[in-house]
Design goal:
The complex is a heterotetramer of chains A (about 550), B (about 325), C (about 525) and D (about 290).
Chain A (H helix, E strand, L loop, with lengths): L8 E10 L6 E10 L4 E6 L5 H9 L7 E10 L2 E2 L5 H7 L4 E4 L3 H4 L6 H12 L4 H14 L5 H6 L7 H13 L5 E5 L7 H18 L2 E6 L2 H7 L2 E6 L2 E7 H6 L4 H8 L17 E14 L2 H5 L5 E14 L3 E5 L6 H8 L7 E6 L2 E2 L5 H10 E4 L13 H11 L4 H14 L16 H14 L4 E5 L7 H18 L2 E6 L2 H7 L2 E6 L2 E7 H6 L4 H9 L5 E2 L4 E2 L7
Parallel strand pairs in A: 3-8, 3-9, 6-7, 7-8, 13-18, 13-19, 16-17, 17-18
Antiparallel strand pairs in A: 1-2, 1-4, 4-5, 9-10, 11-12, 11-14, 14-15, 19-20, 21-22
Chain B lengths: L1 H27 L5 H6 L5 H11 L5 H13 L13 H36 L4 H15 L2 H15 L15 H34 L3 H8 L4 H23 L1 H15 L4 H11 L2 H29 L1 H5 L1
Helix pairs in contact in B: 1-13, 5-6, 5-8, 5-13, 6-8, 7-8, 7-11, 8-10, 8-11, 9-10, 10-13, 11-12, 12-13
Chain C lengths: L1 H17 L10 E6 L14 H10 L1 E2 L1 E3 L5 E3 L2 E5 L5 E6 L13 H14 L1 H7 L2 E6 L4 E6 L6 H6 L7 E2 L2 H4 L16 E3 L9 E6 L23 E6 L3 H9 L5 E2 L7 H5 L4 E5 L5 E7 L9 H10 L2 H8 L6 E2 L24 H14 L7 E6 L3 H17 L3 E6 L1 H7 L13 E7 L28 H12 L3 H17 L3 E7 L2 E5 L19
Parallel strand pairs in C: 1-12, 1-13, 17-18, 17-19
Antiparallel strand pairs in C: 2-9, 3-4, 5-6, 6-8, 7-8, 10-11, 11-12, 13-21, 14-21, 15-19, 15-20, 16-20
Helix pairs in contact in C: 3-4, 9-11, 10-12, 14-15
The chains are: A alpha/beta (about 550), B mainly alpha (about 325), C alpha+beta (about 525), D mainly alpha (about 290).
Amino acid sequence: MKAALTPALSVRNLHVATTGTNPTEILKGISFDVNPGEIVCLVGESGSGKSVTSLVAMDLLPKQEIRPTGGAVLLNGEDILTATPARTKALRGAEMAMVFQEPMTALNPVLRIGLQMEEVFLAHRKMTGPDRRQAVFEAFEAVQLPNPPRIYDSFPHQLSGGQRQRVMIAMALALKPRLLIADEPTTALDVTTQKQILTLIRQLQEENGTAVLFITHDMGVVVDIADRVCVMRNGEVMETGPVHELLAAPKTDYTRSLLAAIPSLTPPEPAGEERGDIVLEVSALSKEFRLGNPLARLIGKPDHVVKAVDEVSFCLRRGRTLGIVGESGSGKSTVARCVMRLEDPSSGAILLDGHDISTVQGGALMRARKRLQMVFQDPNRSLNPRIPILESLSEGPMNYGEDRTSIHARAAEVMEIVGLDPTGLLRYPHQFSGGQRQRIAIARALLMEPEIIVADEAVSALDVSVQAQVLDLLDQIRRERNLSMLFITHDLRVAAQICDEVMVMRNGRVVEMGPASEVLANPKHPYTAALIDAAPGRSWDFVAGQPVGIPVPS
Amino acid sequence: MIHYFVKRLLMAIPVMFFVAVFVFLLLRLTPGDPAIIIAGDQATQAQLETIRENLGLDEPLLGQFVTWMGNLMRGDFGVSLISQKPVLTLIGQRIGPTLSLALAAMSLTLFFALPLGVMAAWRHGKLLDRAVMIFSVLGFSVPVFVTGYVLISVFAVNLQLLPVQGYRPLSEGLVPFLQRIFLPALALASIYIALVSRMTRASMLEILQEDYVRTARAKGLNESVVLFRHALRNAAIPILTIVGTGFAMLISGVVVTESVFNIPGLGRLVVDAVLARDYPLIQAIILLTAGIYVLINLLIDLSYALTDPRVRYQ
Amino acid sequence: MTLSLRSCLLATACVASMLALPGFTRADDLNVVLSAPLRSLDATTSTARITRTHGFMVYDTLLGLDGDMKVQPEMASYAVSDDNLVYTFTLRDGLTFHDGTPVTAADCIASLKRWADHDGAGGKMMGFVKSMDASSDKEFTITLSAPFGQLPDLLAKPSPIPAFILPKRLAETPKGEQITDMTGSGPFMFVADEFQPGVRAVYEKFDGYVPRDEPASGNAGGKVVHFDRVIWEVMPDIQTAINALRAGDVDYLESLPTDLVPLVEMSDTIDYGVIKPVGSQVTGQFNHLLPPFDDVDVRRAAMYALDQEQILMTAIGNPKYFTLCASIYGCSVPLASEAGSEYLNGSADERMAKAKEILAASDYDGTPVLMLQPTDIAVLQAPPIVAAERLREAGFNVEVASMDWATLSSRRTSMEPVADGGWNMFFTFWGVEGIWNPLSSVLIDGTGDPSAWSGWRKSDEVEALRAAYVAAPTFEEQKAAATQIQQLVYDQAFYFNGGEFMSLSAWSADLDGIVPGMVNQFWGIHR
Amino acid sequence: MTDMISVRAARARRLLALPRPGWLTVAAIVVLALIVLAGAFAPLLAPFEPTELNSMMRLKPADATHWMGTDSYGRDLFSRVLYGARISMIVGFSTALGSLAIGLPLGLIAGWFPLADGVLMRIMDGLMAIPGILLAIAVVALTKAGLVTVIIAIMLPEIPQVVRLVRARVISVRNEAYVEAARLLGTSSTRIIWRHLLPATFGPMIVQGTYIYAAAILTEAALSFLGVGIGTETPTWGNIMAEGRLYFALTPSLVFWPAVVLSFCILSINILGDALRDSLDPKMKARG
């Protein structure tokens, strides 16, 4: 036992509850340690209490709303919960530091990077101006930021997301704290950037011997970075253990189900080569955006033309699923929105059963829309919060003249199809969970009896276990009703599971297209290969419960 | 910048044209007769006819409008019907006190409202927050003239600390100027403090939820640095906006305040002009205040660039 | 447009901030707060009291009325021929205009012509004038076609438009056009540069003015000026004005509401009193053209219902400062009489009973009476309200329409039906100096002429008596005519005479020598 | 995705705990209710007719008969203040309702139809550029002083504010996924406006309505002060104060009482508006 070693962070039976007359417990007595030189991953789905844990450790809880009610949080043996605000303020930034999820919003947009960086030194060290500047440059170099003086003079919006996250890491590690808390630091980044940042954190942690508490929902990231794992659920620690032990032999059902829900990167064998008719053909579709907001005109800048979609062509056959994958800004969502005519394409044709719908209006558009339905990314926003879901569901059929009784009957039917209780029809969206709402959104699309469903990141906002269920539902519906599906996602694992064909996009152009099994297994294009390579947790086979490459024992 | 400025000025033209047409029609289609004011109320019909003819008030409306617009284009705002002085001269005499009063009120407002709003947001939900908010809503709830009377009777009549009325231009010395501008500015600011501190609080509350505020705190910064360096600058845009749109409110306060404190400013000029049906004068003042409003809002839009670098470079 | 607007804005802002108004109060300045803003300067066209006051500052008149309302020589002395047809005026020595040119007979003739163009009584006088001729620079004659005994009174009268003398070049300004050049020969010079319409007017002592030797009395006598400058200000809030007077910011308050007398009574440093020897008559005007007041019985019923004391008590408050009397010419003037007092005597209740009785007997069918009420003239706010209450009690159907004075003044000229912007009744007040004889009072104009003053009364008898008054050679005969007119005015219910109230002024106790007059006068007064 | 959501949700729960509004809100509601009741039942509560003159009883101090004293016409101040509540409530309510009723459709049109937006908003900019009080003074002074005129005059400058608010709300909701979803379901523009946009504007409109309500009462008082308000025969708080200001130094109660009642009224409306805003603020609403 390493009994002599004081943990950098030791959480002991921590209880946290909301304030107010009717307090609810958010953390129900959790305990774990983070030792120096160790990366501990705190894994859990939304509502598990993992972020609250990190805020307690930093003494950053909004105390009017949430406050610790028991236990201890020891930083190098010193209890943060009982320390004075002045003391925790002195510790923050110096002894414990934090990197947040959103690099876009975690830096102050109106202050120069240099100043924000210098503040760390100003707050905790007595240094002269030039020394401080020098220290900032060194910190930037340590996180491999190019041209530190330029970064120093920049404002946050002038840096890329990855650069900003590097600045955040530089800021956190500037004073060589004993503990670094990283709260989903790569969730908002594209996979390729994510991989770089993970590597950087690992590297710096090894150099400085820092203890890292790494919070994530992504098992893939856990595989890539953790020494030990701590699985949380509903404010409780389910189990703790070294990463490979825990992944290979999870002790609790919850962990097991969590692991089972992770889609495999390897697509299943293609289910037959049944080539149905082409229901949707898109040819040479382009969409240009003119970025000319008044603020840009403020500095006399001419309108900036962005080609979001550039000459994209593809076919969708009956009963098949075409996946469009790509990183943010690749134009994949714009393709979907153009197909749905939520955006008007700049050029190109969209043939629905041979009829071009790229410019139709009025009745023709209305007829086309009935055959095409969409499932949006965020189920919280795609349902009108002010009306009962029955109203949302029947809106479409009513528009096409169906009478109420028949709609109600069908709505109840469809509710059952998507796995919801028809009695819930009179409830409001906020009375459902995120996964349920996505099912309702799917039900709404189904009621229109479309031929094609366009799913735009339809599972990205969902927790991994829910995600798996919704994917199954979509796939099942597609098969049963012989629907075609256009499935837009950034997640290669999801694409691998649901798509028959995959189209990889980058900067508005198609880089590679083909059957999923081929594209994902043997990428021809280097970009596709890089994407696959960057997918987190590639080294672990979640299905087999062992590292990739070890032959499956028969 | 220049390009944007010019573009915005061009956009203001239809706005100002609408104002011009609106005001012109409002004045001409409503009853009232400047000739009576000139002739006095003991004048007979015959005396009035003579004067009306002389003022050109018997011409058709469209003709009057075209003449007026034509003159406006040449920068000629016309001559007051009543005093026969050029309208611009009259406004020139009166705009100084009004601007001084408005600026003084605005300075007092910012001096009180920003710290109050920041403190209230910082202590959100606590006693201090409640106190600041009640205090500011109270300022909003008492009519300006009542505030004015109370201030006069306390500070000027009873304590005799300050003059009871009047205005002295800054050119006659800072002390007399400040002595006389302070109470009216305070009375006027009382509404405005309420408005700006509420907006500051609301904007700060929102900003304090931002991730970068948490980042700043995570760096171990002092709360004052967090509030004023990190939060307030980001909260500035809504505050600036309310300062701009509040201009209209400032004018309405000015009209009443000027009466109570006997300040010879635009507010009284316009009330007098309306009561006297001095058409060219009313038209000019309303056009002018509308112009100032448009201009202030333009300046505020431009000032966004100073508070937010994204605006400057994007 | 926007650009020019902006440049104007900037320019005016700069000018305003640089413009150093020499506003410091000096010991030899007299700071006066007037009750109405001075905006219109042309005292030869305007009947506004404030403009008239301004006129007496910058202009002088040929003749003046002394404190006893006797005609006295002012700029000139006059002689009448035996046949009462030729008046000879001789200008006194030392009269010069502010621009340095001497006052000549030609200036006077031109001025009288302009005056007669604009003043009602003056116009009437011109009907008798055959010619006006200058016999020398100092002397001119007015030749009449028939005797017109009122001539000296008219030239001396202070209301509604006094016969001011101005330079010929200005006096020849076309009729109706306003004069903006304030050159006169009065004891004060107007400082045009410092004039802020509605706010401030500044007068400098005219060093070239040679006062008469007699002591000042009324608007006659020696106008000796003791201040270098007289500064008029307007304070929109009377409270502020009294505060300013108490604080010593100003020296003289033209008008002090009687209700506020207790405020200045407490102070040792402030005196107050009645400066204007005659008061003002509150008048309720009926519109004789429209029902219900086109019926004399209905008008008479209304007259019985209305009550002088209630109206004045509410509007003025203190009985010390108002007088109840029947005289339509003012309570204390030579022509005052008790004719028609039967309409006013008796208790309010008795008269109310009478009013109800007459109204019931009349053809009144419940037609609503539209009463106009001004909201911005303090004294006139109350009478319509009080009157409306009384009329309702008597059985009238009354609607009160509130409006600002400008609107009211405009509306009262409308002869249209009520629905088209007409009216039935409104209240105003008249300085007694404007109505003290049948010739000048437009309230008793019985011509029914559309150009007559609002109300459009029609009575040939009254008109005949007015002509008789003008032609009457002796005061006794004049008074007899005036008394008969008064009785007829009541019998026909021309208008309601609401009684007379006095105006109070307040001033710093260190001031002395204030000359009572029909307008506030700033000669004689000294510290 | 992160459990910051649970933090936010906790905050939302706390703020949405409507069953326990602060004591301040309760006090505000009580004060407002009292004023509304006083206005509504003024004829029953008032010891005197508000217009009953008595030239012998002018400017009397408070006593057992006249609880707040009498004004310069000898009218009972207490009765007038009671009746004043009635007029002020009518002015506030009609102005708020009127400006919302006019501003709402215009805002919906501007927000939904880009073509109409340009013209409409320029007009609104123009209307907004004219300082409200100048517009109100002009409208009242130039037409006919009366309740309806005053309400219109006060309402006019409020309309652009409502239009802007509704338009901003429509534009933000217009791009919500649920509105796009409705378009995909073949819902027509009018129906989208009616079903999805209109209800989304109600919250902010109610809040704005309370502020207009308060502002209208204040503006009415200011107009009366300047002598261009509702006819003086009608007792409004503004009229009472405007008439009483002459006697402020001698009989301050003429200004004091209406001012106190008015201030309490405005204070309560504002507090209520703030409470409504906090509970209707979409940011405060639970999303998860």
